[in-house]
Specification:
The chain is built from three helices and six strands. With 126 residues, it is α/β, with parallel strands linked by helices. It has a six-stranded mixed β-sheet, with helices on one face. Helix 1 runs parallel beside helix 2. The longest helix is centred in the middle third of the chain and has 19 residues. The chain is globular and about 40 Å long. The relative contact order is 0.15.
Length: 126
């Protein structure tokens, strides 16, 4: 099982999936032409990660913008994490948002209410 880094593009966030440090981090904008294809590779990595005996994962989101299909993929992402949380894996989510970005704050709040895994809303200023 290898760590993976996907570089940021104008349409996709950078994605760092780190086995040794037990975290996954997404940073940037998310409006790929095919969001489901882009995010499926991340979901596959998470499944493989836990299949190799991992017992914890910290998910860090630092997203500036999500289009509609990416928002649906984020919902699927949270549902996948929730599935592992329900299997007694140690899951935590950090949703970072710019202090003045009400849209990303509201998306994070919605996820924090809809799922039972530990969820932290983390404001930052540029």
């Amino acid at each position: 099982m290898k760590s993976v880094f996907l570089p940021k593009t104008p349409e996709t966030p950078s994605v760092r999936m780190d086995v040794a440090q037990a975290y996954i981090e997404l940073e940037g904008n998310s409006y790929p032409e095919n969001a489901f294809e882009f995010y499926q590779q991340i979901f596959d990595w998470i499944d493989e990660y836990f299949a190799h005996g991992a017992d914890r994962l910290r998910a860090i989101f630092r997203l500036n913008y999500l289009n509609t299909s990416s928002a649906k993929c984020m919902l699927n992402f949270m549902a996948l994490l929730q599935q592992y949380h329900a299997q007694d894996k140690i899951i935590s989510v950090e949703w970072h948002y710019e202090e003045d970005d009400d849209d990303m704050l509201e998306i994070g709040k919605a996820f924090s209410v809809d799922f039972t895994m530990p969820f932290q809303l983390v404001p930052f200023s540029e």
